[in-house]
């Protein structure tokens, strides 16, 4: 593990006359940042593994392993490029496990340091912490851009100033023009901005996705180090053959693999689900992107270039569907986060107060769709978008779970989960807790949708067609009960008209049966 040579390097570090300290956070592993353009012997780069970051939520083991392994690899890379690095490992005896206290110690050891620079932290929590704590060091400091995003923090807020809801589609068109992506002069390629309607195909049995590209890292020593330090976590670590990319080179390999093998079908099967097929045609690039090992523009441009060179093999809707996720959704959710924090973190528009069933932490439920999606998340620290939105998220919302509990689960379980992207997706898009800032209606469905878009139901003890009785799929009664319970807040929403028209056609006895069946599901939630 790289940590050995980092430790050796520390001796050299103490003998130098550093003038400036620059802190690199665990999700700032951007080798192309202007900070690293030329090695400068008066600059000391610092990286820290701290308990405050491992403990703000209970993380999946792969998330901690992945962040620490990527941080260590990045420090090694900086050293090899001639930069000076002080790496504070989790087991470092002097580690105070707090960024500012660690910096204070380094300043004590390096009395020539006259200034500090950090890059903008992406999470509100850490941004707030540094704004409050940096002045206490009584030394000039500067906060630089992370040079990662395609929008500035308040761009979405400015674009939608004075508006109640923030429509992604408008933002996306603005981004396509701004960055000249998939454009034909000032018009969108193919005459349409959005090919969403072509992104909802069912996955036919005979279509097999190519295998996921997996790397092989032996992280058992790091896993042992975390255990020795008593760092809590959950889920399967796969430390012996850790398969996520932990450096830029591997991240680029993953991007190339995606463009060559998966992009040709990405758009078609973007919303499809299949048991035991954990990533289908998805890129699995979110960890590399969120740690900044990859820049969003290089991912977008690589996808667009691949399409331009192979238009006979790759249809426009495949690449547009992919680019929309990164140029559109990713930047958009970040903009919502900065526009609405800190209030966003406590929004609970539907006033939900339920608990997350304990099987969200074990996968032990008889519902095939939830069992597979949760077991996969525990094993892989990954689920693709539609599993997150329409299986685990959908069920939590129908059940009436408090958005805080849902947020904590999503923030902990996925390797790509950093609050700026996790929270708007969970609290906003998935749980409708922001009352419709992000989504124009709640993303809920009965078994009908799940049966259409997946093959889960074929092997489930529950019947997707039944609404009542012991074999009835729990999604069905909860779905109608959801609309009954939230009539005061949802009935006037024109996008939900159909659900209320269907409810209005039901007899009182039918509605009463739904209410009773949903109550039964809630009462027996731990056994279903
Ligand atoms: P692909 O399907 O291959 O998409 C390509 C890239 O587009 C992703 O890597 C990601 O960077 C971006 N992207 C796609 N959808 C979104 C989206 N809705 N918002 C932002 N970026 C998007 N994404 C995270 O990166 N971190 C999270 O913590 C996170 N939490 C989520 C929680 C919920 C409840 C939901 C519904 C979605 C969440 N997402 C999150 C968005 C999305 O599910 C993941 O980005 C995606 O599943 C990652 O897998 P992938 O790289 O294979 O994505
Ligand atoms: C996710 C994570 C973890 C588990 N640990 C660390 C850490 O010890 N040190 C660090 O600098 N970063 C870590 N991270 C990533 C941070 O949580 C991330 O940098 C912030 O959330 C800022 O967006
Ligand atoms: Fe999920 Fe219901 Fe289908 Fe079972 S029947 S897999 S619980 S949607």
Secondary-structure map:
Layout lengths: L2 H13 L4 E4 L19 E6 L2 H4 L6 H20 L3 E5 L10 H11 L5 E5 L4 H10 L7 E4 L10 H5 L8 H11 L4 E2 L2 E2 L31 H9 L19 H19 L19 H5 L5 H14 L6 H25 L27 H13 L4 H15 L3 H11 L5 H12 L16 H7 L20 H12 L1 H4 L6 H9 L2 H16 L5
Parallel strand pairs: 1-2, 1-4, 2-3, 4-5
Antiparallel strand pairs: 6-7
Helix pairs in contact: 7-12, 9-11, 9-12, 11-12, 12-16, 13-14, 15-16, 18-21
Bound molecules: flavin-adenine dinucleotide, ligand DLZ and iron/sulfur cluster.
β-strand number: 7
The helix/strand class is mainly alpha
Q: How many alpha or pi helices?
A: 21
Query: N- to C-terminal separation?
Result: 44 Å
What strand line-up does the widest sheet have?
A: 3-2-1-4-5
How would a textbook summarize the main sheet?
A: 5 strands, parallel
Describe this structure in words.
Helix 7 crosses helix 12, helix 13 packs across helix 14 and helix 15 packs across helix 16. The protein has a 5-stranded parallel β-sheet, with helices on both faces. A two-stranded antiparallel ribbon has the order 6-7. The two termini are 44 Å apart. Helix content is 46%, strand content 5%. 46% of the residues are buried. The N terminus is likely disordered. The longest helix is centred in the middle third of the chain and has 25 residues. The protein is mainly alpha-helical. Iron/sulfur cluster binds next to helix 13 and helix 17.
